[in-house]
Amino acid sequence: xxxxxEETSNQRLARNVNELLAELRVAQAGVQILFGFxxxxxxxxxxxxASGFEKAVHLxxxxxxxxxxxxxxxxAAWHRILFRAGRRDDILRAGNRAVLAGLGCLAAAITxxxxxxxxxxxxxIAMAIxxxxxxxxxxxxxxxxxxxxxxxxxxxxxxxxxxxxxxxxE
Length: 170
Description:
By secondary structure, this protein is mainly alpha-helical. The chain has helices at 9-41, 45-48, 52-82, 88-122, 124-156.
C-alpha cells in the first residue's frame, strides 16, 4: 500500500472519510448504551418518586443523548447521500464539526447521568462534586489533551529548511 505521502487527493479524502466513519462506530456504541439506559429509567417506580429537579436533570441527559445521537450519526447519512457526488471534502469538514459537537453532547449527557446517580444515592453535594469531576475528566481527556499533543508535536517538529538555492542575508 502506498504511504500517505504518495496518495492522491481523492485517495486521501476516501481514507479520511473511512477513518471518520470508523471513529463514529466507537462513539455510537457509547451513546446507544447510555440512551437505552436513560429511556428505561422512566418506567421504574423509583423514577416516579423522583423530585422535579431529578426528573429535569434526567430529561436534560436524555435530550443531550438524543442530540449526540443525531450529531454522531449525521456524517454517515451525509456520506451515504453525497459520496457519489464527489462531496467528500464537504462531508469531512462538516462531519468533523458534527462529531466534535456530538462528543461534547455525549460527555455532557454522561456527566449529567452520573451526577444524577450521585444525587439519588448520596445527595446534592455528591452530585456537585461528581458532576464537576466527571465533566472535567471528559474535558481534559477529549479536548485538552489532544490540543496539548497538537501543540507539543508542532513545537518538536524541525523547522522547515529553506530551498537549496535560497540566498538569505549574510
